[in-house]
Specification:
Layout: H1 3-27, H2 30-46, E1 61-63, E2 69-71, E3 99-100, E4 105-106, H3 114-117, H4 120-123, H5 132-136, H6 174-185, E5 193-194, E6 199-200, H7 215-221, H8 233-242, H9 244-247, H10 260-272, H11 276-279, H12 292-297
Antiparallel strand pairs: 1-2, 3-4, 5-6
Helix pairs in contact: 6-10, 8-10
The protein binds heme C (HEC) (4 copies).
């Protein structure tokens, strides 16, 4: 066979393979598999085999809380509000604090119905993507990175704006509140202005809107050269708390010898300092809890 024919035949095969791969993936997107598995689990739990072949569809809610974008996380996280999925693996498991195991009642999460709140208002991430890697994988988002575990507490302040009141009690956001105590104890306000904490220091940058900066906005004006972990805003901040002079050589910000947990608390706190104009949360999503009267009465 002539070399040209070989090449031609080879190209033909590659094209067919590529085309087949592409066709397979458009017909079988990743979320199909997650949803199919969910329905199979549901069928078993309900002892109703018909459920296993429920039609697959994208679950999305339009939310005024995320600048009128669709939030599609529940396409895969389908068991998120279903008590039967309490012990199921991710992404099917029921949300933490949805139930109050001890008191056999509901947890505080039910006050934020998923159909009205979606997920990104607390977790950020890419709301419209339908692939794990794109929605919350190890890709560097230019907008907002997914918040996992206690870091999600940095979003509570978008709506619970009284939480910074003196002596406010907000036990559901323990890490955040511990961060606020630490901020006072370490005297951070001597150098930093933070409206939320009523401080007016000027030796360091203002922190009031820190939590509303996008990854891109942060990336453009920060040096990541000395950051060891992923190049994200939270990681920069966390490592900077552990050792300010390592991340910003020559800084006057002292090394407070913080533990990893204390660095988590402060990172959660500064990320909770939102710019309300940027967040633009509609009035009917705001909460008066914790009550400011209770907070001032015990001053
Ligand atoms: C294509 C399916 C899919 C979509 C869409 C999706 N997830 Fe997930 N999610 C998963 C899977 C699978 C896991 C478990 C494995 C992992 O962490 O990657 C998971 C895990 C998680 C975790 C736990 C991570 C951890 O490290 O413990 C959180 C939080 C989460 N998802 C939030 C979200 C939010 C918020 C959205 C929407 C912005 C979303 N997910 C959209 C499939 C999905
Ligand atoms: C009101 C804020 C809020 C909303 C809305 C919310 N979450 Fe969460 N979520 C949290 C907090 C806070 C935690 C951490 C709880 C803990 O560790 O005690 C969490 C934990 C999780 C976890 C367990 C892994 C982890 O990060 O600790 C998953 C998975 C998750 N959320 C997915 C979702 C999905 C999917 C939605 C939308 C259907 C959603 N969440 C909506 C606040 C929220
Ligand atoms: C998008 C707005 C929004 C976000 C973000 C939000 N909440 Fe809420 N939350 C509400 C609203 C509205 C209520 C309803 C009760 C009310 O009006 O006070 C509520 C109720 C609650 C309650 C019950 C209060 C009571 O009166 O018993 C708790 C506890 C709570 N939220 C904790 C949290 C925590 C912790 C976070 C962060 C992980 C959070 N919320 C994030 C809007 C929000
Ligand atoms: C002696 C003054 C001083 C004290 C005290 C201080 N800082 Fe700083 N801080 C600075 C200076 C100066 C910078 C800017 C240079 C740098 O990156 O370190 C900075 C940077 C920061 C940044 C990064 C801001 C950004 O996006 O560039 C945060 C967040 C921060 N400090 C929080 C804190 C917290 C929380 C405390 C208390 C535990 C604290 N600082 C105590 C002076 C101070």
């Amino acid at each position: 066979m002539d070399i040209k024919n070989v090449l031609f035949a080879f190209a033909g095969v590659s094209m067919a393979v590529l085309f087949g791969y592409h066709a397979y993936h458009s017909a079988n997107p990743e979320w199909h598999e997650y949803q199919r598995t969910y329905y199979e689990m549901l069928a078993e739990k309900m002892s109703d085999p018909k459920l296993a072949s429920a039609p697959l569809k994208i679950d999305q809610v339009w939310l005024p809380t995320v600048n009128n974008r669709a939030d599609r996380c529940m396409t895969c996280h389908k068991g998120i509000g279903n008590p039967l999925f309490k012990d199921a693996p991710q992404p099917y498991t029921t949300h933490p604090n949805f139930f109050d195991e001890e008191n056999k009642g509901t947890g505080y999460m039910v006050q934020h119905p998923f159909a009205k709140y979606g997920c990104t208002v607390c977790h950020e991430g890419e709301p419209q993507a339908l692939q794990v890697e794109k929605t919350h994988g190890d890709v560097h988002h230019l907008d907002r990175e997914l918040l996992v575990g206690s870091f999600a507490q940095s979003s509570c302040s978008k709506c619970h704006q009284n939480l910074y009141a003196k002596k406010a009690e907000f036990p559901e956001a323990e890490t955040l509140m511990a961060g606020a105590k630490l901020f006072k104890r370490k005297g951070c306000g001597a150098c930093h202005t933070a409206k939320q904490m009523r401080t007016k220091g000027t030796a360091g940058p203002e922190l009031s809107g820190w939590g509303s900066k996008t990854e891109l906005a942060f990336y453009l004006v920060h040096n990541f050269e000395h950051v060891e972990g992923q190049h994200t805003k939270l990681q920069w901040e966390w490592e900077h708390f552990i050792d300010p002079a390592k991340i910003t050589p020559g800084t006057i910000m002292p090394n407070f010898r913080l533990s990893d947990e204390e660095a988590n608390q402060l990172t959660t706190l500064v990320s909770s300092f939102k710019d309300d104009a940027k967040e633009a949360i509609p009035m009917n999503y705001l909460s008066s809890y914790p009550e400011p009267e209770a907070a001032t009465a015990s001053k």
